[in-house]
Structures are given as C-alpha cells and as structure tokens.
C-alpha cells in the first residue's frame, strides 16, 4: 500500500496530541510512506514556532528534531515539479483548498497513492472526492 502523509498527520508523530496513537498505527503498519518536500518545510517551521513560543524547551526541541530526522529518512519524497505544480493549480481552482494543501493532494496524485493521510477535514474531503481512500487520525 502506498500511503501519502501530509504535514498535519506527520506532526502527530512528533507531538503527543489528538490522533497521535492512530497516526502511529498507520506509520507502523509498514506501508510505502510518501510525502511532498513541502512537509519538511511545514514541520520544521512548526517545530521552530513551538520553540520560539516556548511551548517546548530547547532540550525537547533537540529530541523532536532528531525524531523528525529519523522519520523523514523513512519517507519517499515527491518533489514539487512542474507537473505537480500544474496539478496543484487545477486542484486549487476546482476546490476550496489552500495552495499548500493543493500541493499535497497533487503530490499524492503524482505517485498514485492508495491512501491519503491527513487530519485536515477539508483536505480529507477533497481527497475523497478525487477518489482516494482517506485516513484522518482524529476521526479513526
């Protein structure tokens, strides 16, 4: 099974929050895990923001950063190619998705993912409309 993982699901593997155990179950089920290069930017920005906002300590930040690197190494990365960008434009024009969400969905389409994983309800709905099986760790 090819499982596309967006940033909202991936972050649940880094921070204990609603849906973390379900996200971990998907991760541990040993699918082929895929995401966009965009995930790296979004996850690192979230980690930095939580540290700057003092929601995590410097020591916690180092631990999470190491966990991030370990998890990232397991992903197959989809680059934001011209094809992915054009597909994202079409998705954004035909849905109410924000641009970065459209990139995630276009990336999943580019690799013909079997499953689209996200905790973003709007993004899950759009993925379902495009024919993906959807996994929302907050709903499962």
From TrEMBL:
Keyword Nuclease: yes
Gene Ontology molecular function, alphabetical: hydrolase activity; metal ion binding; nuclease activity
Residue ranges constituting the PIN domain according to the UniProt record: 4-127
Keywords: Hydrolase, Magnesium, Metal-binding, Nuclease
InterPro entries cross-referenced by the UniProt entry: PIN-like_dom_sf, PIN_dom
Entries under Pfam families matching the protein: PIN
Tagged with keyword Hydrolase: yes
Protein name (Swiss-Prot/TrEMBL): PIN domain-containing protein
